[in-house]
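Subject: Lytic transglycosylase

B.,
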Amino acid sequence: MPIGRITFALCAPVLALLVSSIPTYAARCGGDFNTFMSAMSQEAAAAGVSQAVISQAFAGITQDPAVLAFDRRQRGTFNKSFEQYVATRVGPGRINIGRQMLLRHGSLLARIEQKFGVPPEIVVAIWGLESDFGKGDVGKLPVIRTLATMAHDCRRTELFQGELLAALKIVQRGDLPLRDLIGAFAGEIGQTQFLPSSYIKYGVDFDGNGHVDLRHSVPDVLASTANLLHVSGFKGGAPYGEGTANFEAMREWNRATIYRKTIGYFADRLAGR
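Prediction pasted inline below.
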């Protein structure tokens, strides 16, 4: 995932997952769900979310048992060797399509590299791995319901309370309407699977329409992906293989070494190396 996914192996923009960066919220997990949501409504209002957005987002909300069941099944995505894993993710077909994307979006990627210092092949590799260049599964679940379900669960309540508030802010900013705020099983959104807090922190309006749209706008998707890496310390023109500073910077995308090695492998193939 922009993590792609939150698993115990960790994935998606993972700065949002660092416990040290998670503020403490007052809503008490567990117990009656409606009582919890009332407390979250107060938290959202205190965080500056309008009552109109809160009422719309939380109206009739219920828990999603499928989200909890999926989360409890997770035991770590990366239980294969690098060779086994990369063989399932980077085949000739995906490499060929990736090279087509490099050509099709060459001008855009050049502007992104100039601004953020991240080479096109890295950005396109992440795009391909996360959503098959926007054509694959980016999730079909209502993000607010998903995050409310996970926040009510006591295992990582502070993390997901923060993500729930960030999701409300996405709606409040006008980046996505509530009906379009759909995502994956941990609330990841868009073509490179940003958690809502990363959406707020790193999202870039690169098409200039006044909104950060990580579901539909390719310029916003690719520029935001590059921005996350740039802010995390990725330096243009430097190597990104295992053991390098750039490889470590990519840890803020995904903490799993195998996943970062796969990004680098894919990028090298896209660049003809």
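The beta strands are 141-142, 182-183.

T.
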